[in-house]
Amino acid sequence: MYSVDTGLLAESRPTYLNFDADGFLFHPENWNHQTARTIAAQNGLQEMTSAHLKMLHYIRDYYFELGGFVSPHRICSELEVDKQIMKRYFVSCLNAWRVAGLPNPGEEAKAYMS
After folding, report:
1. Which end of the chain offers a freer environment for a tag, N or C, measured as fewer CB atoms within 10 Å?
2. Dihedral sign of CA atoms 24, 49, 8, 4 in order
3. Contact yes or no for 28/101 (Cβ under 8 A)
């Protein structure tokens, strides 16, 4: 487990993010746009744009509403984005899940998302 200091957030207090050994956020409620940028940089991903954030919010909303993984096909269809763009933005579904600040999905899901 490792931690990242994201500095001052809306509540004007330092927030430390705890990650598991695979780099997944333990507490997804601590996620914000700065957290996404931090996680993306740690995973060698490019700068976060509004298009990236729109996809991340969709993934998070789906997870919190339905409790599971949303397929890349559905993300691209709903957001009217070409699948290659999503792949270029995040490289894999697993990276998108990680940058979205969601908890470890388990071994079976990680194999599917890679």
Report:
1. N
2. positive
3. yes
Structure pTM? 0.82
Rounded to an integer, what distance in angstroms lies between the CA atom of residue 50 and that of residue 52?
A: 5
3-state SS assignment for residue 18: strand
User: Within 13 A of 91's CA, how many CA atoms are on the CB side?
Assistant: 10
Closest by CA position to 31, among listed 73, 21, 44, 48: 48
In the predicted model, is pLDDT for residue 5 greater than 60? no
Domain residue extents for the chain: 2-113
Give the helix/strand (H/E) hosting 5: strand 2-8
Amino acid present at 41: A
